[in-house]
Automatic annotation (TrEMBL):
This is NTE family protein. It comes from Niveibacterium umoris. PANTHER family: NEUROPATHY TARGET ESTERASE SWS (PTHR14226:SF29), NEUROPATHY TARGET ESTERASE/SWISS CHEESE D.MELANOGASTER (PTHR14226). The keyword Membrane does not apply. It comes from the Bacteria. One of its GO terms (biological process) is lipid catabolic process. The lineage of its organism: Bacteria, Pseudomonadati, Pseudomonadota, Betaproteobacteria, Rhodocyclales.
Amino acid sequence: MKCLFAGLLAILALSHAFPASAAPAAASNAATTAARPKIGLVLGGGGARGLAHVGVIEQLERMRVPIDCIAGTSAGALVGGIYASGMPVPEIVRNLEQADWDRLIGGTPDRRNLPYTRKRDDYQNLAAATFGLDAEGLKVPRSVVGSQFIDRFLREMTRDIYKESFNDLPIPFEAVATDLEKGDMRVFKSGDLAIALRASMAVPGVFDVVDDNGRLLVDGMFVRNLPVENLKDRSPGSCAADIVIVVDVGTPMLKTEQIRTFLDVASQAMNIATGRNVIEQRKLIGPSDVLIEPNLDGYTPASFTSVKEIIQRGREAMKPFEARLAGLAMDDTHYRGWLTRIAGRTVEAQKPYDKLVVTPTRFVPLDTVESVIAGDVPPATQAQLLDRFDKVYDSGDFDSINYRLQTEGGQRIATVTPLERSVGPNYLRMGIDFKLDTYRTASISFLGNYQLTWLNQWGAQWRNDLRLGAETSLQSEFYQPLADTQTFLVGRVAASTSSLPLFDESGNRLFEIGVDARGAELGGGYSFGRFGEIRVTGFTEHLKGEVVTGGFGLTSQVTTRLKGGHALLIVDQLDNPKWPRHGYFLRSDYVAGKLTDVDDQANLLQFDGDLVGTLGTYTVRGTARVRGSLDQKLSTVPVPYQLGGFLQLSGLQTNQLTGARTGLGRVMVYKQISALLPQLGSGTYIGGSLEGGKVWNQIFTGTNTKVIPAASAYLGVDTVLGPLYLGLGWSEYDGSSKWAGYLYLGYTN
């Protein structure tokens, strides 16, 4: 998997490369004549290591060595294709260095742009993997990484170039891909340049395959990772280069002592798979050819955070070849003319398309997609069309939205293919969370989430959440948007079984109450799109409480029913609720109701607010939380509110304090110290918190606590299974310092 990802990264990384420039003026004789040898440039695959191609091309331009044709595979195709299209080297370097590689490779939409209905699951500890489940059985995604942002990047870099022959590019070019069904080679010599590059770098299992008129194509590294033969071919229409400059950036084979993990084994297997065809191609390199192997020790196909350094390695690799390449150099006048010719820029991307065609969809209504893509003014330039794609993609219903170019009767036609999620429209996610602390408290829960979407043309959804373990619960909600408006109807039923531990003032556990709850609510609301929503519902809830442990022999059972109204406002603009770096969050719940046999009305409030910002490498997150009875009456609280535990007065036991209302203020500061492969998570963090909390009308004493100070320090990892914390907490309570260690997996707020 590592090698696959590496391949993908390689592909991505190699997104730019160009010709070279100035050299010694003395060495320009034969090269300036019409009889000069035809020079071909071969660029091999290698992921981020392929960024070195850019440095090589830059130096070729410095030495005034003209390139007559280019062949590339994977990352080499990416760099070579963009250079062959006429983009100047400085622009390629700038685009590569400014690219947000985490976003390009991660392939997921900006969470802040998603509709709120797609964000709700983030507050459960569900694993990142999403499966499909319907009458046909379980569906597994075809790729690990979404290709939407890479597709857009390629479109912007290739500027809508479509050629009946790539020989008509400023520099003739060809790209190598692999036919996934037959296992043979597919060489792109014409058509839509962006599609050719995308196919050549489609690492299987990482990026989705490319459908080329019915042929499923993946990365060309499996058939010819170093396409020397392509440029030496003497058949009609081929380059037939007299001299080839070959740049090999492949990952060296690992030695026995370097193979330590399953990822190392997978990487070595990939090296073996691609290495054999590289060996065969290197045998074709003749005495007049030039083989360049940049020193890329310390860089892997995934090293996209080292763009500048890898490009520099490419530059340095050219120093030993200056004297040898001097004989191929043009004089300054002729080379400037050559550069002018290849720098011809296409303006096609700035022209509106003559026609937009949207292919049929599977479950999202076609008119919904067409209305966004067509826009208010149907003719669209490339930039306008790509922005519309982003809006469609942000709905969360699509794996990618791309287009193919073609010409017909002198018209430029863009055929748009919105690829809905391959596992949709019914999604299954699972997860696990656990909590351990040095108070010997341990809990574990297994989670399941099953959503059915697009149940009708208005976008109805039916979501079901199951939790088994320390707390058992089942919730089912039906969400029905009303026509093309932002309003919706909603109905929900829920049942849960949980426990309420009760402690004395010294923190000794006295007994535990089991709480069973069953309820239903019905109402409507208004969606603010990507920002959030407001709901107003009526509800009824039946509750039963019973002593399950301790209780000094008490076996009493209490039942009650709460009926009333519920108003909810949510605004969610966090970029990642588990390890946010930017954004804000607000949730405000108000419940007005009556409990059985209680005269007073229950006025219950839940308020949660978060504000997050990042300065440099440090992130600061401020949190305010209030939950409970507005009038602090325990008699009107169906289930008392609790506080205590990691990041909720760290140092105390989990849920140690119980009362009619709780309040918490917290400031967290953390920093990412390393990155993870997307298959494993996003990164590792160190951080700490300062906390203060209070409980009103405690359950046994009826008194209010003072503001209790607390703090924590922790190491955290954002894994695909959820946030993992190893922390140490402190608080000052009941006249003494309390210390505790915590190991948590799961969302903690």
